[in-house]
Amino acid sequence: MIYYSRSFVLIAFLMFIGVANAQQSCLQAKELTYNIEMQTTVSTGSNNPLWLNANKYGLSSVRNDNGYIRYGVFRPLVADSIDKFSIGYGLDIAAAYHFTSSMIIQQAFVECKWLHGVLTIGSKQQPMELKNNELSSGSQTLGINARPIPQVRIALPDYLNIPGTHGWLGIKGHIAFGKTTDGNWQEDVAGKDQKYTTNTLYHSKAGFIKIGKEDQCGLSVEFGLEMACIFGGTSYNIVDTKGNKITVQKNGASLKDYLNAFIPGEGKDASEKGVLSNAEGDHLGSYLLRINWKNNNWKISAYADHFFEDQSGMFLLDYDGYGSGKTWNVKERNRYVLYDLKDILLGFEVQLPKNRYVSNIVCEYIYTKYQSGPIYHDRSETLSDHIGGSDNYYNHSVYTGWQHWGQVIGNPLYRSPIYNKDGFISVEDNRFIAWHLGFNGDPYKNLHYKVMLTTQEGWGTYDHPYTDIKRNTSMLIETTYKLPNYIAKINTQGWSVRGAFALDNGSILGNNTGFQFTIIKNGILNNKKSRK
């Protein structure tokens, strides 16, 4: 194994240098940018440490020794910023070892912008909303932890000022439909007996409103809603509502099913028999809120992310006024169940005045234990009470939950299925309390660092709770140095080196220690005429 890893690193390094030297003679097109990376990770323990794996858009691995060579070429939309209409595209591929696949198309997209709207077709890394993408533990619905899903996406990526409000009110958001690409991986992991899905369809949407002008009054408020759904495809080895095992089940993919995915609460999954049914597909989402206060060079923000997996978590209210006996499924009374607002991510961010040591500080608290309570009961002829608890975040009875290629699509503190050793593609620790701290800075010219520290207590899930509370601490120290324009008369413009040390300690992820080293080369591919 050691010989294999060293051989790969040597070959990768030679390929990396070769590609870097050859880049000036290929793809010489104005306004094209390129990015070349070579990364290797060496670790000890049961897994690669959390923060060497998480929040890297899925281009990562939990295996102890892993690495990749990555090459991307992009034409950003800003290249045509003076025009009302512009086109952008990108191709980002990687050759990896000890990943879930050896050849990875990380990004492949084309997009066009007209006025303020952007249409994107393909797989593209999309940043988190209302959070610090470098220091946050991650969003609970649309995070940066899993590989991008190929999709058609229509978006207002930046706030559009509403006419007549003089810039005091803006809106942004997106709507997307796509298809996951991890069906073969799921089949290999699950085998013949465990649940998995193939050709699964994907939908997401979000809308945000911003009120206020930080530059004038110092205060602004941003709030909105993110929602997503997994539907369609083919499910294997699932159990229906009567307890019968279904080996193969085709899920709906008609126009009506797309509409049911877009409008939650309509339709039902094919495995649901009888008069009771839930929303079609695996629906989930988050309410997001961020309050910003800016004063000269300071900026202080407080934010919240309330996650929900069904109506009980979305509205914190459920109807429970059904009759009894023959009218057990008839709404007869004005009676409701009120749920507590307990599950939430609360964050605090400070952007300090420019200094050499600390630029940003992020502190987050995450609580996910409640999940509308431990009891779930659908009304029946013998007991008409309806209680919608045990939400089982990121898991689903028909689908393999909120994951892609084994990595949860949301916050990585929900233990991703890629850690499981038993063939189950599920999140085995979704009830937890966690504290997270991150900060970064630029202490010297061309030198950037970040530090992250996370502590967590886990209870497992309602269906499979831990016998005892499990605890975990994860830490990361990472530095990036951008090489100056020349070293020993060799042009090094656009070169960076990054080193990271991380560890886990505890019973959720195990005791792990790892080092990660990355070489990065990026720049602009201009033709000869543009350089004169």
End-to-end CA span: 50 Å
- SS elements, strand count: 29
Q: β content, as a range?
A: over 45%
Largest sheet: 18 strands, antiparallel, barrel
Average residue-wise pLDDT: 89
Query: Ranges with pLDDT <50 over ≥5 residues?
Result: 1-29, 273-277, 527-532
Structural category: mainly beta
Radius of gyration: 24 Å
Number of helices: 6
Proportion of residues in helical segments: under 10%
Shape assignment: globular
Outline of the structure:
The chain is mainly beta. The protein has helices spanning 2-22, 50-53, 183-190, 214-217, 255-262, 311-315, and strands at 32-44, 66-75, 85-97, 103-114, 117-123, 151-161, 169-179, 196-198, 201-211, 219-231, 234-239, 245-250, 282-295, 298-308, 317-319, 336-338, 344-351, 360-367, 376-377, 387-388, 403-404, 407-408, 432-444, 447-460, 465-482, 486-487, 490-491, 495-506, 512-525. It contains six helices and 29 strands.
